[in-house]
Amino acid sequence: MAGQGDETQPRFSPGVSEAATPTPTPATVPEGPVYAEPVDPWATAEAAAIAAGGQPGGYQPHPDPQGTWTVPGATEPTVEKRSRRRLALIIGGAVAGVTVIATAAAAFLLWPKFPALDYHALREVKQITPKIPFTSTFMDTEVYGERAFFAGVTDTGTLHTLAAETGSGDVLWENDNAGTAYSWKAMYAREKVLVLVSGVDPTTSRSRVVALSSEDGRLVWDKQLGSSDEIHLAADTVLWVDREAKKLTGLGMSDGTVEWSVDDPDATSVQLVTGIDDLTGPAGATGRPFTPAGGDKQRFVQIDSDRTVTVRDVHTGDVLQKRAEVASTGDKVAAHDGRLYVVEPGTTKRVFQYDLARFAETQPVTLYTAGDSEDVDQLTPCGKLVCFVVSTGYDGKADVVRAAGGEGAWDKPVAGVEELVAVGSNGLLAVGDEGTTLLVGGKEAWYRLGVTVRLDARNVLTFSGGLTSSVDDRELSGTHLGEESVNLGVLAEVRSGTCSWNTSTIACANEKGYVLHSFAD
């Protein structure tokens, strides 16, 4: 088992022992700034920044079947990741599932606040044909509450966007106000704006971040980013790591104005601190919440290459806590529910837990110490605990999912895990090459072929195959944890990798436009 291969090492009990050496030894500290791939705070994922032309760290709305997004200038991992094989599409019948949990255990899953959704067979709400035809270069959808947003690039390179009501499919607005760019990469919806991210133009080494009003589609703000800059989207604030100007800046989401700015000579990386409510609403395939909780007291951690970590207020930039010798910019970290989790780099690979409220005065707790041949990945908040994958070997056959950090810690062998997505306080989706395993309290509830995503803290939606940009069919099923799944029918001829959803409607791009389907009342 992980962490037990060397009998000469001191043993640590998850959640109770302090680190034998609270700060990593100097040999493990990388020299100079390192910009690694953003670590997904949900699975991932989906923490860190929208790199110029990339994705917001920690968030991947619609998985790209051709590869992952990286931060420009990032150093590639020294250990090659296992390749994700395309998930098998099940032809005919309902989405396959294997239930292995007893009825008594299933009753434990029920939670009055999140009852079973009133699932029904898929009903087409509306086919939406944009006024201007778009190409397959870039297409995306976002659902925020009861509003769906759609985007596609025309043959002139212009980004065409529109918004519609999810219940009726009525188009609220449609325009080309985002303008043109060398390429377009991502779209993210917030309460007041729709944020659109371009790729880096190789002739200028610049990218664009554009915000349109969610109400009427007018252009609200437009920012130029350097090739190494990052942005991070909180609920109502944009954190901009401006590496050219050496500034860390907070922009108002609704108008793009500078709310605060501090000097940042050390090439910071940033991690938003998520909360329990971020694990209870609709989320993408890597766990990115479509409607992040936010709040007046949202925090983030600023990580410098000299291993100093600073806790700041999202809305003011004020320093709340600070500590040296914690983590560097390329380390695997997650910040959730008042705690910071750090995977120690180098050969030791301990998982540390820090209390952000008493960051400066308390010692970290060692949650896990990896064995000599083990690696720790997919650091993911899961209720009051943190979950991660311990791997031994390249093929993933010996993967173990662990939950640590307090009462109810557990471990469970699950082969080939590629993503971890929390479902409420004690559910966890372990997504692999060909299917998804639901774990509840460390016990396997079921395994299903395809990709399963979160609708709320007790309801999930399963696609019968991988999520891709190609036009294809996907069977859907809805499940309230602890109950039998409901076959919803076939989502026909859609680009499943563009789909997004709330608890009743799914929006997707198709061959020529977009389509809305209802799956619950």
UniProtKB/TrEMBL annotation:
Residues 149-357 form the Pyrrolo-quinoline quinone repeat domain. Residues 1-11 have a biased composition (Polar residues). The keyword Membrane applies. Residues 1-37, 53-78 are annotated as: Disordered. It comes from the Bacteria. It holds the Pfam family PQQ_2. Residues 19-28, 53-67 have a biased composition (Low complexity). The chain crosses the membrane at residues 87-111. Keywords: Membrane, Transmembrane, Transmembrane helix. This is PQQ-like domain-containing protein. It comes from Actinoplanes philippinensis.
